[in-house]
Specification:
2 helices; rod-shaped; mainly alpha
Length: about 60
């Protein structure tokens, strides 16, 4: 138990925990952003592809 208590008193241990929590928060934000924009980007790509195909078809 004294080893655990010593770990909480050391600033290096606390700093490592803070960095770990910060990294986890950033990872959750990235996953959320990618999930939210994934379908939206797919729709934009589909519209752009359809517009290019239509433009090429009218020229030929």
């Amino acid at each position: 138990m004294s080893l655990l208590a010593a770990g909480w008193r050391e600033e290096a241990g606390v700093t490592a925990i803070e960095y770990g929590l910060l990294a986890a928060l950033i990872a959750v934000a990235i996953v959320g952003a990618v999930s939210a924009t994934g379908t939206s980007l797919g729709a934009v790509y589909t519209r752009w592809t359809d517009a290019v195909i239509t433009a090429i078809s009218t020229v030929l």
